[in-house]
Amino acid sequence: MGKTPDNGRDDAKWRPIGAPAAMRDLKDWFIREVLPLEAALMQFLRQNWRDKADIADLRQDVYVRVYEAAKKQIPDTAKPFVLTTARNLLIDRVRRERVVPIETVGDLEVLGAASNDVSADRALIAHDALAKLQAALDKLPAPCREAILLRKVDGLSRRDIAERMGISERTVNRHIAEGMRALADMLYSEAAELRRKS
Amino acid sequence: MTDITATMIEEQAADWLERMDRGEWGETDQSALDEWLGENPAHMVALWRLDGAWTFADRLAALRTPRLHDTLLARGRRVLPLLTKSVAALVLIGIVGTAAMFLVPKPAEKTFATAVGGRKTLELRDGSRIEMNTGTVLRLANDGAQRKVWLDKGEAFFDIKHDAAHPFVVITAGHRITDLGTKFVVREGADSLEVTLVEGRARFESADATIKPQLAFLSPGDVVVATATSMDVTRKSPKDLSSDLGWRRGVLIFRHTTLADAVAEFNRYNTTRLVIGDEQTANLQINGTFKDDDAASFAGTARAVFGLRVEKHGDEIVLSQ
Fold this sequence. Notes:
By secondary structure, chain A is mostly helical. Chain A contains eleven helices and no strands. In chain A, helix 8 crosses helix 9 (158-165). Chain A is elongated. The two termini of chain A are 37 Å apart. In chain B, helix 1 packs across helix 3 (41-60), helix 2 packs across helix 3 (41-60) and helix 4 packs across helix 5 (85-103). Chain B starts with 5 loop residues before the first helix and ends with a strand.
C-alpha cells in the first residue's frame, strides 16, 4: 500500500515487543474476545467491590492477569476465563487487605449465569456499530469531537487541525488523546448503556 | 497494585497512541515505545484497549451528518418551505438529477462509454487515471479542473492525484465518493453499488437521508455496498482485492466462486451468454484465472473438471449436469 503524506496510520509501522506474530495474535484475540466483555466485567466489579474508586485499577489488574495467562495459552472461551480471573483477583485483594469479609466477594450465581452466553457481548459491540459510534461521538466534548473528525474523516495533519480550530498543536494532541480514552470507555464499558439509549 | 494508577497509565497510553496516529513516527519513537511497553504489562493492555476502540472508529466510522446533506436541506427549506425536511431533500435530488440529464447544456460534461467486452483508460490533465471496465458509461465534468465524474453504469477503477483544494468526486446512484488521495473501484450493479478502496483514503456519502449511516470513511480493503435503502461496510483481503481487479489485465479470477457467480461475471463481458441449466451446477465452486473474452474455454474447463454437459444454442452456451 502506498503512503499518503499526513494521514499517519500505518499499523505495520509499530510492533510491540516479543515474538511479532504471536504478539499480534494475542492482541487480535484481546481486542476481539476480551474487550467486548468489558461491560460485563465492569458490572461484575461494581457489584462485588464496595469502593468505586478502585474499579479502574481493578479492571486494569484483571486485564494484566488475562494478558499474562493468555501469553502462555490463549483460552478457548474468553468470558468464563475473564470473569473467573476477576473473581480470583477480588478474593486475593480481600485476603491481602483484610478489609471486607470474604462473603461480600464473588457472587457465583451471577458469574455462572453470565458465563453461558459467550457471543452476546461481542454481538452487542458489533450490532449497530455505526449508530453506537455516532452516539459515542455525540457525547464527546465539542472540541474533542471536532479534532477527532478532522483527523479521522478529513485526514488532516496536526498542523492543519490546529489551524482550522484556532488552537495550538499541543492542544490538538490533548483533544485527540482524550477522545481516544472516552471512545474506549463508551464503546467497551458503556456499550450496554449506549444500546439502551438508542 | 502499584502507586501508578490505571488512569495515569491510560493517559500515557493515549499519548502514545496519539503520537503513532499522528504519522510522524521514527526509529527513536519506536524504541522509546518498546521501552515503555517493556516496563509494565499494564502498559501493553492499556494501549491495546485504546487501539481497539480507535481502530474500530476508523474502520466503521460513520462520523457525522455529511455536509452535502445539510446543504440540500438548507436549499430545500428556502425553495419549498412547506414540505418536511426529508421530502424537500428527496424532491431536490430528483430535480437535480433531472436537470443534469436534460436541462444542463451538454458541453458541461463529456460522456465516455465502453461496449460489452470493452475497456478504456482516460488520462486526465492532472495525471489522474480512470480505467473503465466493460459496459460502462460515465460523464466527466468538462471544465478546466476535471474533478467530477458521474458513473451512470458499469465499473471503473480510479487512480486519483490528491488535491486538497479540489477534491475529486464521483457521483453515482445518489451516492458520492470523495477521494482523499486514493485508488478505488466503483461498480454499479443492477440494484446495488459497490465501492472498494484499494489504496489511500476516501469518503463515501449517501445523499439519501433515509440511509443510515450517511457517511463512511474508508481505509484500504474496505468495501461499501449500498442499495437504494441500505449501506454496509465490509472488508476484503488483499488477495480478494487483487482478484477483483483482474479485469484491468483482461482476466477474471475466481476463488471458490460458485458457477452461478462466475457465469454472471462472464456475461458482463461477452455477448455470447453462459446459462446454467440446474441448481446443482449453479452451486459448484471453481478456482482459476480466465481470459474475460473467452467464455468457451471457461465452459470447456467446467466440462473437464466437473463432467458437465455443454450445449451451444445460438448465442447461448448451456452448462448442466
